[in-house]
Design a protein that fits this description.
Elements lengths: L2 H16 L7 E2 L5 E6 L11 E7 L5 E8 L9 E9 L4 E6 L9 H8 L3 E6 L13 E2 L4 E15 L4 E14 L5
Parallel strand pairs: 1-10
Antiparallel strand pairs: 2-3, 2-7, 3-6, 4-5, 4-9, 7-10, 8-9, 9-10
Length: 180
């Protein structure tokens, strides 16, 4: 495990222990709701929006209510995104938003962006097969680098209207194409 990923996991573990019990959602290593955020604005100087692609691996339809990105420091506020997206059983759905800044107030993300890396996706499970299962990849054609952030995902099972809230990690997947 890389030092960066290990430090991020340790930092996230400390964050869980510092939150009051009433605000801590159930922490899971893997959920049946997979998603990834994408934006053209991350690689180009544009005002393009943010796109969310979600995969529901449950046996029933679900409604994603919100995803909250927790701040990694005490001076910054959490970023809560109201999603309101229905995802069919064993299926995909997507939604687009105006641009939401998910890159500021995080040391790993700031340092990575300063080193001229381009953000490819933010996900709890990469839906992009070119980066799936990679922690750090370094080849002659590209490099992948990741930062980790704690989030809370809130969704409703439409079969019984039960609300599910999980605290989990998302990975920030960066790419830096080398000049040939």
């Amino acid at each position: 495990m890389s030092r960066v990923l290990g430090a991020a996991i340790l930092t996230s573990s400390i964050l869980f222990s510092l939150l009051p019990a009433s605000t801590v959602a159930e922490h899971v290593e893997e959920t049946e709701l997979k998603f990834a955020f994408y934006s053209s604005a991350w690689g180009e100087n544009t005002d393009d929006g943010l796109r969310l692609v979600a995969l529901n691996k449950t046996a029933g339809n679900i409604h994603i209510n919100s995803i909250k990105f927790h701040s990694s420091d005490e001076q910054s506020e959490d970023v809560n995104i109201d999603i309101s997206l229905e995802v069919p059983s064993e299926g995909y759905a997507e939604i687009e938003f105006e641009y939401i800044d998910l890159l500021t107030n995080d040391e790993c993300i700031s340092r990575t962006m300063e080193e001229n890396w381009r953000l490819v996706e933010i996900s709890n499970y990469t839906l992009n097969p070119s980066v799936r299962n990679l922690i750090i990849e370094d080849t002659d054609s590209f490099r992948i680098y990741q930062c980790v952030k704690t989030i809370t995902t809130n969704w409703t099972s439409l079969s019984d209207n039960s609300v599910n809230e999980y605290q989990e990690w998302v990975l920030y997947h960066f790419e830096n194409r080398r000049d040939q």
